[in-house]
């Protein structure tokens, strides 16, 4: 394999997991649309593949690539971020076990734990992930997992990964970091002590809002063996075209994250002190309570910006209705800018729970269009 661990991020992103096909010279991974693979005699696999749920030659290079960009040893690809989440939870937790989750966790993560895993005897405690002492206090003798998201969705709180890894390990628990918002370009959880980095590759890794997928990366072989068992045993795998699209996206991840960060910084400048804005939330902003921790563990601060409107819920809904370039839609991390109202959209399932989000909150996924156009769009939508 031409790629090495010592290579820079983009060299790994572009080359890891695949060399030009020796048979044809194809520089891109072929989309192997085959569910099964011919054997030379019983058990005689030619390329290590027998059936495409277990493994297929388009998914395999993606998995090696995912491991390389997270600077981990083992990568596993799934059909969605939630499928990766489900695999992780079932690999680590048994009935009677307890986990700590961020009190503003991704809505789908919260819903899966709260509505499904509790039925199987799993208990959880939500804690503010930016407060290391609160996480320590939420731990029990039965705690087997500390779930970290940083930055969190949608409030962009920051968890100190190295400190939280200490707390988890001291308590005999594993720590997983949902690294979806930062991407491996901006933040490397395994190097900071996390046991597993989890992604919704639907977001920045895919990067073009054209594919749904998930990933788990770890250095822990025993954990990876459990992931592989469930990946095949439960079968939530990506198809070859999805794997191809995700790899295609990853090649430009570094360029895109730089541009997302540049554009977000310009939007934050506009929002900062704007009379219609009660609060701008961005980890790169000096006023962010955990700016110092974010600066320590992130290369830059990414494309997610949240804000609270001075005029309350109606002002937030009006703002969402008035942007022209920012499309009103759930999801994030694509080349195009998106706007959404978490309370009524992505986080509607948290209503009435501890994880409820403020109703004057709006979340922006700042894309990679021209910054001047994005700034002008936000400006007119705030002032209309
Ligand atoms: C989108 C998302 C997920 C879930 O991923 P899917 O690909 O939609 O299943 C999990 N965590 C975070 C932070 C996300 O943004």
Automatic annotation (TrEMBL):
Residue positions of the PTM N6-(pyridoxal phosphate)lysine? 203
Which CDD domains is this protein grouped with?
Answer: CGS_like
By what name is this protein known? Cystathionine gamma-synthase
Q: Which organism is it from?
A: Rhodococcus aetherivorans
Q: What is stated as this protein's family in its record?
A: Belongs to the trans-sulfuration enzymes family.
Q: Which reaction does it catalyse?
A: O-succinyl-L-homoserine + L-cysteine = L,L-cystathionine + succinate + H(+)
Question: Record's InterPro entries?
Answer: Cys/Met-Metab_PyrdxlP-dep_enz, Cys_met_metab_PP, PyrdxlP-dep_Trfase, PyrdxlP-dep_Trfase_major, PyrdxlP-dep_Trfase_small
Q: Which NCBIfam families match?
A: PRK07811.1 (NF005871)
Any idea which UniProt keywords this protein has? Answer: Amino-acid biosynthesis, Lyase, Methionine biosynthesis, Pyridoxal phosphate, Transferase
Its domain of life reads Bacteria
